[in-house]
Design brief:
Number of helices: 23
Keywords: Membrane, Transmembrane, Transmembrane helix
Helix content: 55-70%
Radius of gyration: 40 Å
Organism: Paenibacillus wenxiniae
Protein name: EAL domain-containing protein
Shape: elongated
Strand content: 15-25%
Structural class: alpha/beta
Number of strands: 23
Largest sheet: 8 strands, mixed, barrel
Length: 683
């Protein structure tokens, strides 16, 4: 048999290598998006990258086949030609499926390289088997094995580099390096395989069911052109998809699929304009943080998704005119914008929303209740027509709703704006108040009316503003709690109280416990009790001379965590009192489980003790304290009649202006010298 001589076109060889590298780069770039996708998007990116990789291998092979010429006609079997392409695509899919995992193991990387290398090899030798001609193919096995080894090693190296640097930007030298190595794996395997191939002339061996040389050549060129166009089309489609997804991510909230702040800005640019009627409703869910903390963030996310759905339904049910949209601004904050509506429509929508969101939620088999939401309404053009003005006005009105008792709506007015500006000014000044020594502590005595002696004091925080004078605690303490400033202020206050109490013991020989009010924010930190212990020990004061006052809302919220911290505080020798008893949220069924030593009856019952209904409640509270063996202190005692009434019912420990108003350290020093030094103190 005569061995045929092969002739190669160097330009076409170069083109085949370029096709392999370009296809590999596009495929690897597409595959890098798989690890950042979920669900259907992940499958789509994986299929596209596999198709581009497999088609690139196939295209490179048949462009390479066009690069050489035999001295006879060559035909191609269509079925085997298509099967060779399928083999390359399937192998690419399996390889990418392993390598795009978040953290593939070594053996998974090895399998990925093995599948890719075998896919390239199978594609090549299946394509060779598709050739029909008057010649027999004889292989040099050492070159065959060498071609397979080249495909395996280079494929593993390319995929290993791809895994290491897949999170690089869309274009990076490392990705390009991976593509070049993969391109050389494909073309290196092909031309090494061709070097292993020898053609021996065998007259009359060609089958009659194949195409002529020119027809086969036209078919190959057409097929390769179509595949190349497909690769380019997929590449452009991927760019379009990515831009579309990026735009969606930029303007939409990933959790609820509602437009976000950026979507809101785009909405205002087209939907609101000067002197246009419209409304903006700012919604903040009440007590969402406690739900998040007690039930977990996953349950909180489910709740937000359900709230978003209900808000959409409310918008649809109102059948409002104009362009209307619901937005999620972050956390538990939502905004509803409606153009071309009247104020009565906005009020009706707010009422429907409040009614809807307080209905029970069924989340992961649990029934969850939300107390409602606080809504602020801003109207256009009365309160502005640009986004910032309307959002600021609606936000201000929302805080008014929240401070007024929650689960209600408020329409913005100028008085709210004045209050909000003052609040912002106070917040800024409060951040500097402690360092500027503007905060100080006053002390109010607690009196045992039965034995006519001092039994303790309550420390109260005050703020002397350099311009405004004394700022009411009812005004600045809520600001401190909301901003978190109450935490460092409280720790400072505990330290000051301990030091001052120690001074009274050493200088005036007055040894009584002093109580400090605790904010709910303090118990959010599991290290709170340990920090208090450290402050007390550092001061040198015996722990029994410090009391911590908590409100009923603190006692009932996050009860388990609160109980553990209070028990630790009691174990140190400090006592715990329950302030404002009878007006908060406490459950009598849990009162005996709370680690408290003292109940402080709220002053509203004392002030109205001339009313029979209040007298009955006072008697009940006294009986509860006595039966639970808790100490009872009546707050707000201002007259002798109130003192006499409380004594007649069996309550003797009292606090109020009748015994002494809150006093500065200097005033308390004088009061102690005049009234207490010649009287017995509580033991």
């Amino acid at each position: 048999m005569e061995q045929l001589t092969l002739y190669y076109n160097g330009w076409i060889i170069g083109l085949s290598v370029i096709i392999a590298i370009v296809a590999a780069y596009i495929a690897l770039n597409l595959a890098s998006k798989v690890s950042h996708s979920r669900g259907k998007s992940k499958i789509i990116w994986l299929c596209l990258s596999s198709f581009v990789m497999g088609s690139g291998v196939w295209s490179m092979h048949f462009v390479g086949m066009l690069a050489f010429h035999l001295q006879m006609d060559v035909h191609y079997d269509i079925v085997l030609t298509l099967l060779s392409a399928v083999a390359a695509i399937v192998a690419s899919f399996i390889a990418f499926a392993f390598v795009v995992k978040p953290k593939p193991k070594l053996w998974e990387n090895v399998i990925a390289g093995l599948m890719m290398g075998l896919g390239i090899s199978v594609m090549h030798y299946t394509g060779m088997q598709a050739m029909r001609m008057d010649a027999m193919i004889v292989y040099s096995m050492q070159y065959v094995w060498l071609s397979i080894v080249i495909a395996l090693v280079a494929s593993y190296g390319a995929l290993f580099l791809f895994y290491r640097f897949r999170n690089q930007p869309d274009f990076s030298l490392w990705k390009l390096s991976s593509a070049i190595i993969m391109g050389f794996a494909i073309s290196g395997m092909h031309y090494t395989g061709m070097a292993a191939t020898h053609f021996h002339h065998m007259p009359g061996s060609m089958e009659t069911t194949t195409f002529s040389f020119s027809a086969s050549q036209v078919l190959l060129i057409t097929a390769v052109s179509l595949v190349s166009l497909s690769i380019l089309a997929i590449s452009w489609a991927a760019v379009f998809m990515e831009r579309h997804l990026l735009e969606r991510m930029a303007y939409s909230d990933p959790l609820t699929a509602l437009p976000n702040r950026y979507g809101l800005q785009r909405y205002f640019e087209k939907a609101f304009y000067e002197k246009m009627q419209g409304a903006v409703l700012f919604l903040d869910l009440d007590r969402f943080k406690s739900i998040n903390d007690t039930l977990g963030h996953d349950m909180g996310d489910e709740l937000l998704i359900e709230v978003a759905r209900r808000l959409r339904e409310c918008m649809q049910a109102e059948q409002l005119p104009g362009d209307n949209q619901v937005f999620r601004l972050g956390g538990d904050e939502f905004l509803i914008a409606a153009s071309d509506i009247q104020p009565n429509h906005a009020i009706s929508l707010a009422e429907r929303i409040l009614q809807s969101i307080k209905q029970p939620y069924h989340l992961s088999g649990n029934q969850v209740f939300v107390t409602g939401g606080s809504i602020g309404i801003a109207l256009a053009p009365q309160h502005g027509y640009d986004r910032m003005s309307l959002m600021r006005a609606a936000d201000t009105a929302m805080y008014v709703s929240k401070n007024a008792g929650k689960n209600r709506y408020s329409i913005f007015n100028e008085e709210m704006n004045i209050r909000q500006l003052r609040r912002m000014s106070l917040e800024n000044d409060l951040r500097q108040a402690m360092d500027a020594n503007q905060l100080f502590i006053v002390y109010q005595p607690k009196w045992d009316s039965q034995h006519d002696r001092l039994v303790g004091m309550e420390a109260l925080l005050r703020w002397r503003h350099p311009e405004l004078g004394l700022v009411s605690p009812g005004e600045f303490i809520p600001i401190a709690e909301e901003t978190g400033l109450i935490i460092p202020i409280t720790y400072w206050m505990i330290g000051e109280v301990c030091q001052q109490n120690l001074n009274w013991q050493q200088e005036l020989h007055v040894s009584v416990p002093v109580s400090v009010n605790m904010s709910a924010r303090m118990f959010e930190n599991p290290l709170f009790a340990g920090r208090v212990e450290h402050i007390v020990r550092q001061s040198g004061l015996a722990a029994k001379y410090l009391e911590l006052e908590i409100t009923e809302s603190i006692a009932m919220n996050s009860m388990e965590g609160t109980v553990e911290q209070l028990k630790h505080i009691q174990s140190l020798g400090m006592r715990v009192s329950l302030d404002d008893f009878g007006t908060g949220y406490s459950s009598l069924g849990q009162l005996d489980e709370m680690p408290v030593d003292i109940i402080k009856m709220d002053q509203i019952f004392v002030r109205k003790s001339d009313q029979p209904s209040k007298q009955a409640i006072v008697s009940t509270i006294i009986a509860i304290a006595r039966n639970l063996e808790l100490e009872l202190v009546a707050e707000g005692v201002e007259t002798a009649e109130q003192e006499t009434f409380l004594q007649s019912r069996g309550c003797y420990l009292m606090q109020g202006y009748y015994y002494g108003k809150p006093m500065t350290v200097e005033q308390m020093n004088e009061w102690l010298k005049e009234k207490v030094l010649h009287m017995p103190l509580a033991k």
